[in-house]
């Protein structure tokens, strides 16, 4: 409410200021009567203006989208694919025609141009920082995006951007005040024109899809935007969400898939066995933007940045790892690994973590292992709120989630990300203190962009040779962060080995880094591939093969003796991956579980969201003491994000140690007993969890 009132106040001041500027301007420069403002006489000229503007706008959008590969690539798109280019112009033109229904046509035209201009600019800017284009689903990440603003842009750039937005708003308000109204408008005729244009647009869409010039399936989001144009792809991703209902979806069809392509058939409900000790710990180690430096053909490194990973590839199962993300989209890779379901079944660019999984549980690796008595833990050295992990992990069967806000002794990279080594001791503490086997889902963050275009390290472990200075420094920063991530991995595996705990560790990069890499400059030429290794200390045989992120978990479960557990994993272990119906049947099972009638489980989802605890350590208040007029809270396992709170309000707090917090605000004596300790989000004051004096978290 405060934000809404603040925004209203700002807009009112802008409008008031615009009126003052307008009045002074008009006193010196009287308003001239426009030449074109009669609906009867000038309609055709205005429509022609809209058509020309649509072509120019599309040219701008496509040029900016390809700016990293060449300033003339937008024009080349026009000449190489004229029909697709003009089709995208038609989409923009259809929206521009809405201006015909307004008396202040000039203003409506300006707003529509501004909207498309902003969309195209945002897409271009995003492609400068990552390798996946802008979709409607990115708007779901707006809050996360603002939290990273200072990571990607300097304060000067942010200030300049805010100033430009302010000036633009002022211009828009001034133009609205100054804009002439059209006369003699025939709204029925204008509506008819709009209907004809939209109908032509729909007809063109169906025609191009039928002739295979367009596609509704985007196997690769980058290539789709490049081949089919921004306007079509953005609208497609905006309306195409969730998993589409299969053509022959029915109880009989789902039962047929289960009976013919799974070992357990329709006997799909997991039975609680509590026999975890028969099996190893399973650790999923997802390394942020991790890749193999030797796969880049556009650079040379003086030393191997990842010697531990190189050694692991020689001695353990490895291969190319097909992921759904490129340069960004971490959450979709981990979704595939944890569930066995391809994120490509969803709408292009969609994040299940941002939608369905916030409200509904889903069969996953966590639930499968819990049925055997495993404890299930998630850990991430970044914000709990990022990708809604603090909500989603309860839908995937995790008992606890330790995020950055529950960690101590955090060391940051030069660009502000936590170094992954902060998690090593916590991982080992979980393994050692557990009296059963553990599933640990570990998400790293150290390798995250942006990557500086100037020199950062004075004495790097490895240097880079590249075509230009900017490329050299970006890659040199990246590969030296890779080296530290590799050291973290090696140290962790060494400690697991020393613990004697039987363990299997899947290690992989969630996607390649956002370094503007071309297909010809990377590995096999597929930018949707990273590398993986499956380390173990239980004597598994080395089996090298390329695999997808949504099929790797089924392989691991089968290899450790937990085959045919869970419907999706059972299907992937039993069905022929080369059959023409393999993907179709897998998609049907996923639809039934998430959007259908749960025929798989007899009509009811058997998985309940877990009562997930934030942090694996119990945070506890031992007492509240006063020294002079100040209060101190004694306790256990406090972190730098522990804050004293009162009735849900965060108070000014000084973190003194893991056992002591100081209160910097004055409070009434009567409120002392109501003081609580809350863990707050690392970017704002969102409370993640709270405990009182007689509670433990």
From TrEMBL:
It is a multi-pass membrane protein. Residues 280-557 form the Sulfatase N-terminal domain. CDD domains: LTA_synthase. GO terms for cellular component: plasma membrane. It is found in: Cell membrane. Keywords: Cell membrane, Membrane, Transmembrane, Transmembrane helix. It comes from the Bacteria. Pathway: Cell wall biogenesis; lipoteichoic acid biosynthesis. It holds the Pfam family Sulfatase. This is Arylsulfatase. It comes from Mogibacterium diversum.
């Amino acid at each position: 409410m405060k934000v809404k009132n603040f925004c209203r106040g700002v807009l009112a001041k802008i409008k008031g200021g615009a009126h003052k500027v307008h009045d002074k301007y008009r006193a010196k420069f009287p308003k001239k009567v426009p030449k074109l403002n009669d609906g009867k006489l000038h309609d055709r000229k205005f429509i022609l203006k809209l058509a020309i503007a649509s072509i120019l706008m599309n040219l701008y959008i496509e040029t900016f989208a390809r700016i990293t590969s060449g300033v003339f690539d937008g024009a080349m798109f026009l000449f190489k694919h004229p029909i697709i280019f003009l089709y995208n112009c038609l989409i923009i033109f259809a929206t521009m025609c809405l201006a015909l229904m307004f008396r202040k046509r000039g203003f409506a035209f300006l707003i529509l141009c501004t909207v498309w201009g902003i969309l195209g600019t945002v897409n271009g800017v995003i492609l400068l920082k990552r390798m996946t284009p802008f979709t409607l689903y990115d708007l779901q990440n707006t809050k996360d995006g603002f939290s990273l603003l200072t990571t990607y842009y300097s304060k000067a750039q942010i200030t300049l951007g805010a100033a430009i937005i302010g000036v633009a708003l002022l211009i828009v308000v001034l133009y609205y005040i100054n804009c002439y109204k059209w006369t003699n408008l025939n709204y029925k005729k204008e509506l008819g024109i709009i209907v004809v244009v939209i109908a032509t647009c729909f007809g063109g869409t169906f025609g191009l899809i039928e002739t295979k010039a367009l596609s509704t399936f985007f196997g690769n989001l980058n290539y789709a935007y490049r081949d089919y144009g921004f306007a079509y792809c953005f609208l497609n991703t905006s309306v195409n969400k969730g998993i589409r209902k299969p053509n022959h979806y029915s109880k009989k069809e789902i039962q047929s898939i289960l009976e013919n392509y799974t070992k357990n058939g329709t006997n799909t409900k997991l039975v609680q066995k509590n026999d975890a000790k028969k099996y190893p710990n399973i650790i999923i180690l997802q390394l942020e933007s991790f890749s193999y430096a030797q796969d880049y053909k556009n650079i040379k490194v003086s030393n191997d940045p990842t010697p531990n990973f190189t050694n692991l590839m020689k001695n353990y199962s490895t291969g190319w790892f097909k992921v759904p993300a490129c340069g960004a989209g971490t959450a979709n890779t981990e979704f595939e690994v944890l569930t066995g379901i391809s994120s490509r079944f969803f709408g292009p660019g969609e994040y299940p973590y941002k939608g369905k999984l916030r409200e509904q549980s889903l069969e996953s690796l966590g639930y499968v292992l819990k049925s055997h008595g495993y404890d299930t833990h998630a850990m991430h050295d970044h914000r709990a709120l990022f990708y809604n992990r603090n909500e989603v992990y309860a839908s995937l069967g995790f008992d606890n989630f330790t995020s950055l806000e529950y960690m101590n002794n955090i060391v940051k990279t030069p660009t502000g990300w936590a170094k992954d080594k902060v998690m090593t001791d916590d991982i080992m503490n979980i393994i050692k203190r557990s009296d059963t086997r553990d599933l640990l889902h570990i998400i790293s963050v150290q390798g995250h962009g942006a990557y500086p275009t100037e020199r950062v390290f004075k004495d790097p472990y490895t240097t880079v040779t590249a075509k230009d200075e900017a490329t050299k420094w970006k890659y040199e920063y990246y590969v030296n962060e890779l080296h530290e991530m590799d050291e973290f991995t090696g140290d962790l595996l060494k400690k697991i080995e020393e613990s004697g705990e039987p363990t299997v560790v899947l290690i992989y990069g969630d996607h390649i880094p956002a370094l503007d890499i071309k297909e010809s400059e990377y590995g096999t030429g597929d930018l949707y591939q990273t590398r993986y290794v499956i380390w173990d200390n239980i004597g598994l045989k080395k089996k090298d093969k390329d695999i997808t992120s949504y099929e790797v978990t089924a392989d691991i479960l089968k290899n450790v003796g937990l085959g045919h557990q869970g419907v999706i994993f059972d299907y992937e272990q039993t069905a022929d991956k080369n059959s023409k119906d393999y993907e179709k049947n897998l998609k049907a099972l996923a639809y039934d579980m998430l959007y259908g009638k749960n025929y798989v489980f007899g009509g009811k989802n058997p998985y309940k969201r877990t009562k997930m605890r934030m942090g694996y350590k119990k945070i506890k208040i031992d007492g509240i003491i006063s020294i002079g007029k100040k209060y101190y809270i004694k306790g256990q396992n406090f972190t730098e994000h522990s804050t004293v709170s009162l009735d849900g309000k965060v108070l000014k707090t000084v973190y003194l140690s893991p056992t002591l917090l100081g209160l910097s605000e004055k409070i009434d004596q009567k409120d002392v007993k109501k003081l609580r300790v809350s863990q707050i989000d690392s970017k704002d004051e969102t409370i993640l969890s709270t405990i009182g004096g007689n509670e433990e978290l």
